[in-house]
Amino acid sequence: MRSPEDALDTRLGARLAALRTQHGWSLGELADRSGVSRSTLSRAERAEISPTAAVLNRLCHVYGRTMSQLLSEVEAAPAPLVRAAGQQIWRDPGSGFVRRSVSPPHAGLRGELVEGRLTPGACIAYDRPPVAGLEQHLWVLDGALEVTVGEQAHELDTGDCLRMRVFGPTRFRCRTDVEARYVLAVVRP
Asked: Are 117 and 92 in contact (CB under 8 A)?
């Protein structure tokens, strides 16, 4: 029996393949545009692997979408109310990052809420935002994070909030021996 995560990977792979086809790109062209290897792209489209957060970020940048937008495109149907048990959870198999889509993205709205969890010492780095000028408000609920925006590093403890507009690289690192849990409010420009 397939797990819900396997089903999500299958729908995500199909959506990634459809986006590439809509743009008329070969795997090689998408690899050149995104910096992701042809092999990884092919395996992700066939749901042989679950793409990492960094790979999804690069693809979102090429397609001009936030990660939540992309993930919402593979959900059955967006609803105005999403109960906790029905909120989409995605795990990055390589970094120890768990992402919960708390508020459902909607085509008519620019904002969304995401809960992030990083295991002790885990780090996720994005070389660029999925959409330039993306507004983010990061509120640490538990633990401590080091968030680097461009060249500026910020140390955040429980209760701290960092507001930022993202144009370049960012990095999130759990800087303690306990899990970091945070809310990220994302507002498209």
From this structure: no
Predicted confidence at residue 9, as pLDDT, reads: 85
Contact between 151 and 145 (Cβ < 8 Å): no
Least reliable range by pLDDT among 7-11, 126-130, 146-150, 151-155: 7-11
99's CB contacts (< 8 A; 6+ apart) are 53, 67, 89, 90, 91, 92, 114, 115, 116, 117
Q: Decide which of 173 and 95 is more confident.
A: 173
3-state SS, the chain, equals: CCCHHHHHHHHHHHHHHHHHHHHCCCHHHHHHHHCCCHHHHHHHHCCCCCCCHHHHHHHHHHHCCCHHHHHHCCCCCCCCCCCHHHCCEEEECCCCEEEEECCCCCCCCCEEEEEEEECCCCEEEECCCCCCCEEEEEEEEECCEEEEECCEEEEECCCCEEEEEECCCEEEEECCCCCEEEEEEEECC
How much is the average pLDDT of 74-103? 82
The pLDDT score that the predictor gives to residue 181 is: 98
